[in-house]
Design a protein that fits this description.
With 303 residues, this protein is α/β, with parallel strands linked by helices. The protein folds into 2 domains: 4-114 and 230-302, FAD/NAD(P)-binding domain, CATH 3.50.50; 122-227, FAD/NAD(P)-binding domain, CATH 3.50.50.60. The chain has 8 helices and 17 strands. The strands form 4 sheets. Strands 1, 2, 3, 4, 5, 6 and 17 form a 7-stranded mixed β-sheet that branches. Strands 8-15-9-10-11 form a 5-stranded parallel β-sheet. Strands 12-13-14 form a 3-stranded antiparallel β-sheet. A hairpin with a 4-residue loop joins strand 5 (90-95) and strand 6 (100-108). The two termini are 27 Å apart. 39% of the residues are buried. The mean pLDDT is 95. The chain binds flavin-adenine dinucleotide. Flavin-adenine dinucleotide (FAD) binds next to helix 1, strand 2, helix 4 and helix 8. Residues 6-281 form the FAD/NAD(P)-binding domain. InterPro entries: FAD/NAD-bd_sf (IPR036188), FAD/NAD-binding_dom (IPR023753), Ferredoxin-NADP_redctase_2 (IPR050097). Its cofactor is FAD. This is NAD(P)/FAD-dependent oxidoreductase. Homodimer.
């Protein structure tokens, strides 16, 4: 693509697509580069998104793309961005399809992704009866008997959160240490069992958890699981370009979605630790307004 577009958006999840919608409506030339690996692809339904509660992730994207493509200045490329160079006003993104996209502003909306799950049987139930976020899927598992797989130091926090949905759950620290005596005492006081043995495997039928088998011979019968996955950013491109990132890899942005580099923005899971589709979409919209303001201010000065 020879033309220099106003904005290149890398990532076409809720954040990147909502940014594209706002920018398209603001008459800006936009290219969204997306390789279609959304973090919630494993799940059947997305919850908690007003007017879209229960929609499948693929249907969500289909409707979003249909609506965005009504704005002629927005183009969506199904490709992977592999390298980004340049500075404000003249960025270049190279893709695996050997395309080069040139743009004035950049938005990283690359999301986060799970590192491989290391508990045998977890992959089979992930997104069906094992979830990561009670705000997303707690309602579906309400009042059920649950296994909460969580590292020691976060156990009390998770117990408090989960207790809003059910009072029948067991904390499984999966062999990780870190619970203090005070924390164990607090969980005991609230009648929350804690099992420290490493997990051997998860037994399930057609994606539905039946029991969690522990190395010490104990079994926990349950119908659902919440667990804390290890997350990494969807792509290191922002970091490689020189954007400041946190220790966990999240892109550092200010309240206007600006990164530490001029002309470079980030939104959604990539730049936040509040993992919800509606939050990602709203951060994408915010980034779009911020980018559009800068583009308009520059055009205004040239008039
Ligand atoms: C199992 C599960 C269930 C969930 N359920 C819910 C729910 O019910 N409700 C809810 O609100 N939230 C839910 N979430 C969270 C929600 O999925 C995320 O918060 C949301 O998808 C984040 O949107 P995003 O646009 O930031 O990132 P994503 O949706 O992850 O999109 C990022 C996109 O960027 C693309 N990308 C990355 N790098 C590149 C590259 N180099 N080149 C091209 N493209 C690239 C990816 O392929 C992907 O398409 C769930 C998450 C999980 C894991």
């Amino acid at each position: 693509m020879e033309k220099t577009v106003d904005v290149i958006i890398i990532g076409g999840g809720p954040s990147g697509l909502n940014a594209a919608l706002v920018l398209g409506r603001a008459k800006k030339d936009v290219v969204v580069i997306d390789d279609g690996r959304p973090r919630n692809a494993v799940t059947r339904e997305t919850h908690g998104f007003l007017t879209r509660d229960g929609i499948s992730p693929s249907e969500f994207r289909k409707v979003a793309k249909q609506q965005i493509l009504a704005y002629p200045s927005v183009h969506i490329m199904e490709d992977t961005a592999t390298a980004v160079t340049g500075t404000e006003g003249s960025f270049e993104v190279t893709t695996t399809g050997n395309k080069i996209v040139k743009g004035r502003k950049l938005l990283f909306a690359v999301g986060k992704k799970d590192l491989p799950l290391d508990i045998p049987g977890l992959l089979e139930v992930y997104g069906k009866s094992a979830f990561v976020c009670p705000y997303c899927d707690g309602w579906e598992l309400r009042d059920q008997s649950l296994g909460i797989i969580v590292g020691g130091d976060k156990a009390v926090h998770m117990a408090k959160v989960i207790s809003g949905w059910t009072n029948r759950f067991t904390i499984l620290t999966n062999g990780t240490d870190g619970l203090t005596d005070e924390q164990r005492e607090e969980l005991k006081l609230h009648h929350v069992p804690v099992l420290d043995s490493p997990i051997r495997s998860i037994e399930s039928e057609e994606g539905m958890v039946r029991q969690i088998l522990l190395e010490d011979g104990n079994n926990v019968e349950c119908t659902g699981i919440f667990f804390a996955p290890k997350l990494v950013i969807g792509s290191d491109l922002a970091k490689n370009l020189g954007c400041e990132v946190t220790e966990s890899g999240t892109v550092v942005v200010n309240e206007f979605a600006k990164t530490s580099l001029p002309g470079v923005f980030s939104a959604g899971d990539a730049a936040s630790e509040m993992y919800q589709a509606i939050t990602a979409a709203s951060l994408g919209a915010l980034a779009a307004v911020s980018i559009n303001s800068e583009l308009n201010a520059k055009a205004w000065d040239k008039r």
